[in-house]
Design brief:
Elements lengths: L5 E5 L5 E2 L15 E5 L39 H6 L9 E6 L5 H14 L4 E5 L4 H10 L8 E4 L3 H9 L6 E5 L16 H18 L2 E6 L12 H5 L2 E7 L5 E9 L7 E7 L2 E4 L3 H5 L10 E8 L2 E13 L7 E4 L3 H15 L6 E7 L11 H13 L7 E3 L2 E2 L5 E2 L4 H10 L4 E5 L10 E5 L2 H8 L5
Parallel strand pairs: 4-8, 4-9, 5-6, 5-7, 7-8, 13-17, 15-16, 17-20, 20-21
Antiparallel strand pairs: 1-2, 1-3, 9-10, 10-11, 11-12, 13-14, 14-16, 18-19
Helix pairs in contact: 9-11
Length: 457
């Protein structure tokens, strides 16, 4: 009897090694390599990949009329927006998020809304018993909804159930890390198991035209656990973001083959589940204090949607050799760059101060257009001069101190005007005529400093 081959696989990135080592050379992770069994050769398969041992694929011309993709609308507008306009039959969707953020709650609400419209849906849980799912459904007001539940971790049993009759239109697998295939000698949650189970479920989705939604755990870094190839296998990747200290939740699309990326859906966590927020800008600015320095409103763009959010900064003197930097909701490296520009080009001396930066509401901002708003909040805090309460700020700062134009400026100003703002501190770009908005065009970062510190430091 041949001795089964064994390999050592990194559970973070999927890299394979012939022997165990403490550090993964591919992702630089420590103690993430575990031993797994498997020969990697399928018994009974024809040897070689030459002509005559496969099936010729169907080839199409580029001029062939494309087949229109029908959409399944859940009725939850914010969820459909994140999906790119609804669910596409035969697509595979991966949803990740921190534990307890509300992934299972949101997907159960979505299946309940689809089931109310007469769409056949199945919710498969590998982490909870049926009674736990039913208790959550009662709390969400889904009593009497024709939604089918199942609790199983064996992939073979799940596929057998799905193939036994008419396949459902939508299937949720919660979560992919708890599933196991008995053809693989590895523990559930390992790279091999996650990759094998995902491949089989995605193949079922393409074969039967069923929408398969996979729930994925995340690592301490916020990335979906398991091999990175999992995100390449699926059609759509959604991250459920939010802070437990805030009631807001953000569903962000980072990959979508059937829609735009960086599209977001905004929800509010309540006692009756997640409620969609149709106007997030107004909600993010509800509790804003306009009388304190160090605060300004940033006019941002998330996907195709303009979003206004408050940026708060606190600059305090420090006697420590290494002053503290604390950032919530923005890139800490970007903050260091803005502070360096303010020090080198304007002489503010922020390097010797403790700096705290916060994006109110739990939203995570990634676009460079927030540079000018962050700079305005920092300058306002250090000068103790508040930013005009009816002004929005946006613009990108270069290392030379110039303020660069940003895309979709008109959409940002329209959203600001709709919420009653009358001024905009923005780059000096082409003329944009927005009624009731008075622009203050800033060419260099020194111009912004002079607005708060006309006599210098």
């Amino acid at each position: 009897m041949a001795k089964p081959s064994r390999s050592f696989v990194c559970q973070s990135c999927g890299a394979v090694y012939n022997r165990w080592q403490g550090k993964c050379d591919a992702c630089n992770g420590w103690n993430s390599i575990t031993e797994e069994a498997g020969s990697g050769i399928v018994s009974g398969a024809p040897k070689g990949l030459s002509k005559g041992k496969g099936r010729a694929m169907e080839l199409l011309s580029l001029d062939t009329p494309p087949i229109a993709l029908p959409r399944i609308m859940s009725g939850i507008d914010e969820l459909d927006r994140a999906f790119g306009g609804g669910l596409v039959p035969g697509s595979a969707i991966l949803v990740g998020g921190d534990p307890g953020i509300g992934k299972s709650t949101l997907l159960l609400q979505a299946l309940g809304a689809l089931a109310k419209k007469g769409i056949d849906c199945l919710y498969v849980s590998g982490e909870e018993a049926s009674a736990q799912v039913q208790m959550r459904a009662v709390r969400l007001g889904l009593t009497g909804v024709p939604l089918t539940l199942g609790t199983e971790t064996s992939l073979r049993n799940i596929l057998t159930t799905l193939d036994s009759g008419k396949p459902p239109a939508v299937v949720v697998i919660d979560s992919i890390q708890t599933m196991f295939a008995d053809t693989v000698e590895a523990a559930p949650g390992t790279v091999t198991q996650v990759r094998t189970c995902s491949h089989e479920l995605i193949s079922f989705a393409k074969r039967k035209g069923t929408v398969v939604i996979l729930v994925g755990h995340v690592t301490k870094d916020g990335q979906i656990a398991g091999p990175r190839v999992l995100e390449h296998m699926v059609d759509t990747v959604l991250y459920f973001e939010g802070d437990r200290g805030h009631q807001f939740r953000i569903l962000r699309a980072v990959k979508n083959r059937y829609g735009g990326t960086d599209e977001i859906g905004v929800f509010e966590m309540t006692g009756q589940g997640l409620m969609e927020v149709s106007n997030p800008s107004e909600l993010f600015l509800t509790d804003r204090d306009t009388n304190e320095p160090g605060s300004c409103v940033f006019a941002g763009i998330e996907g195709s949607r303009p979003v206004l959010v408050e940026i708060q900064a606190l600059v305090a003197s420090s006697q420590a050799a290494n002053p503290r930097r604390a950032v919530v909701g923005w890139d800490s490296g970007r903050l260091a760059m803005v502070m360096a520009v303010l020090d080198a080009r304007c002489g503010l001396g922020l390097s010797s101060c403790d700096v705290y930066l916060n994006v109110a509401g739990g939203l995570k901002i990634t676009e460079p257009a927030a540079d000018l708003a962050v700079a305005a909040a920092l300058i306002s805090s250090i000068s103790q001069q508040k930013v005009h309460e009816q002004a929005v700020v946006f613009g990108e700062i270069s290392l030379s101190g110039d303020v660069r134009p940003v895309p979709q400026a008109e959409a940002r100003l329209k959203e600001a005007a709709k919420l009653g703002f009358t001024e905009a501190m923005m780059p000096d770009q082409k003329k944009i005529g927005i009624k009731n908005i008075r622009p203050q065009r800033i060419k260099r970062i020194q111009d912004l400093v002079d607005m708060f510190l006309p006599d210098g430091m």
